[in-house]
Amino acid sequence: MVKKAVVNEQVLLAGCGDLGLRAAQRLRARGAEVWALRREPPIPDDSGIRWLRGDLTRPETLRELPVGITRVVYLPTPDRRDEAAYRSTFVDGLRHLLGALDQAHLQRALLISSSAVYGEHAGDWVDEGTPPAPPGFNGSVLLEAEQWLATQQTPSVVLRLAGLYGPGRLQLIERLRAGQLKVPRAQPHWANRIHVDDAAAAIVHLLPLADPLSLYLGVDDTPLPLDVLYDHLSGLIGVSPVADGPAPGGIGSKRLSNARLRASGFVPQWPDSRDGYAALLDA
Questions:
Q1: Which of these, 266, 169, 148, 162, lies nearest to 208 by C-alpha position?
Q2: What are 198-226's pLDDT values in tens digits?
Q3: How far apart are the C-alpha atoms of 55 and 39, rounded to whole Å?
Q4: Which residues lie closer than 8 Å to 217 by C-beta, 6 or more apart?
């Protein structure tokens, strides 16, 4: 497959952790100049990423951003898991960043949001047209950031990601090994996943996409009942099946559809998380 060139693009990744780094590597491979903003940048290396020091919650630290940024990806991580930290990072921080950027060149803002904006759907299919109903503060704040961004002059796209897994994201496996989980068996509770490399690839796919829609769900092809997923993973690691118990709190049962993202031309490397987890464990 011929890769679409993004030569002369200057991309800023605002909040560049593991997911951002994976996206940055793909963007660099396609010819983009990549800037990455973090509170504490790593030691410069030979990756070609141009690191910037700044705090999205403190606008005075964003006064010297490079001129000529054409596309920005907003994917920070709050330093605490509470509503104040989320609002400061996702709502105020987004405002600070767009206010500090050179608007003359900025062609697209891509906000990385979450399927946490959806509530309980009793296992029904959910897509971009499903009304959001966040059950927790995290989804509520992300939805507020989405809605604010939609009112701005900068063309924007939102990518709502399902639960990430991948290298360094094997907490589920660790909890299964430790016998810390229970799972509802009488009534299916659906789980939705996307491999972190597929999430990064989706970001790179959407950034230069001609005439994108305003919203996409980032998820693999295969929603799974939690008991099916947990039993499969338990078999892979050789532990007993998880005992029957209540569904996880604050996460509604639903099946997320990636039909819109697929229709845009995106093809996941790992369409079924069972295969993705198996490859991680083999590695």
A1: 266
A2: 999 999 999 999 999 999 999 999 999 99
A3: 5
A4: 115, 126, 127, 128, 159, 160, 162, 256, 257, 258, 260, 261
H, E, C per residue of 89-123: HHHHHHHHHHHHCCCCCCCEEEEEEEHHHCCCCCC
Spatial distance between the Cα atoms of 81 and 78, rounded to a whole number of angstroms: 7
Max alpha carbon distance in the chain (Å)?
A: 59
Q: Report residue 160: phi and psi, to 5°.
A: -90, 110
Cβ atoms of residues 217 and 160 within 8 Å: yes
Distance in angstroms (rounded) separating the CA atoms of residues 99 and 14: 13
What does the block give as tokens for 104? 């003359």
Q: Looking up tokens 């994108």, which residue turns up?
A: 212
Rg (CA), the chain: 19
What type of residue sits at position 28?
R
Helix axes 137-150, 93-100, angle to 10 degrees: 30
- H/E stretch holding 51 reads strand 50-53
3-state percent helix, strand, coil for the chain, nearest multiple of 5: 35, 20, 45
Closest CA to 120 of 129, 133, 138: 133
- Model confidence, pTM: 0.95
**Per-residue pLDDT reduced to its tens digit, 64-86:** 999 999 999 999 999 899 999 99
Cα(12)–Cα(155) distance, integer angstroms: 15
